[in-house]
Write a structure and sequence with these properties.
2 domains, 284 residues, seven-stranded antiparallel β-sheet, disordered N terminus, Immunoglobulin-like
Length: 284
């Protein structure tokens, strides 16, 4: 089995755990609103322009809604995004609706929802011309207002401006399939080693982002991670312990020092763990 399709700069690896499990009602609500299982999502990347009609045949692809940035202002989480002009964009938590907005003529929209001081997981969808499209992944909003797109079988995308060279996220499934994400100088070739073993290689994209799937499984426990290349050299410790069973909802989030660990249920019913790293790198 292969990894789910990811951005062009990603490496490929074994699949994340997608074992089907009984779904709780709260997960079903979130999955319906936020999973990227629609064929429309798989034909082109989020944010891609709608293709022009070819001849007299109408091309039915329509880009799904995309969250572009998140911030907290005066006790409100402001979520900005792009979609089809005039589309009704809906935001939902596992326990129900959280807000909606109508995209303007440029396809831009913003939804405000109360900040809770805790990590929150949302699904984003749009309705246009009677058709409902789901966003590519779930939106995680951290307690300090950072937006992160969680993607089943792929690496998390931290919604921030390119930062100094660093690792921003680490994803792992119950079988040890893992992805490392972060920023570095644009176009830089990088390599990844875990406990000294080379498990990944690739390049940052034009925006300086990298999302690299490791070529081998990572065993449970703590491991040394090194990401290095031209103008980038990051060494840190990663925690690859597996998630315990999710019994009270579709996700569980906890701060571990300056870092956030999120155990969450994928649309296929598997469990994935995402570490979102703060500016302070875990000690080696």
């Amino acid at each position: 089995m292969k990894m789910e399709a990811s951005p062009p700069q990603d490496s490929r690896s074994r699949s994340f755990d997608q074992t089907v499990r009984p779904k709780q009602r709260s997960f079903e609500i979130l999955a319906i609103l936020a999973c990227c299982a629609l064929s429309a999502c798989s034909r082109a990347p989020a944010g891609a322009p709608t293709p022009a009609a070819k001849g007299n045949a109408e091309v039915d692809y329509q880009a799904p809604p995309q969250v572009t940035s998140v911030r907290i202002v005066a006790g409100q989480v402001e979520i900005f995004g792009a979609s089809t002009a005039g589309a009704v964009v809906r935001l939902a938590r596992p326990d129900g609706p959280a807000g909606q907005a109508t995209a303007n003529a440029s396809g831009r929209w913003v939804i405000n929802t109360p900040a809770s001081g805790q990590a929150q997981l949302y699904g984003v969808s749009e309705v246009t011309a009677g058709r409902t499209l789901q966003s590519s992944g779930y939106l995680l909003v951290t307690p300090d207002g950072l937006g992160v797109v969680l993607r089943a079988g792929a690496g998390a995308l931290v919604l921030s401006q390119p930062e100094p060279s660093r690792v921003t996220a680490f994803d792992i499934d119950r079988q040890g399939g893992a992805v490392v994400s972060g920023f570095g100088p644009p176009g830089t070739r990088i390599s990844i080693r875990v406990d000294g073993d080379k498990l990944g290689e690739g390049r940052t994209d034009a925006g300086g982002r990298f999302v690299l799937a490791l070529t081998g499984p990572v065993n449970p426990g703590r491991h040394s991670l090194k990401v290095f290349g031209e103008a980038i050299d990051v060494a840190m410790t990663i925690d690859a312990s597996r998630a315990s069973a999710l019994t009270s909802g579709p996700y569980r989030a906890a701060m571990v020092g300056p870092h956030l660990r999120v155990d969450w249920m994928t649309p296929g019913g598997g469990e994935q763990t995402t570490w979102v790293y703060g500016q302070e790198i875990p000690a080696k």
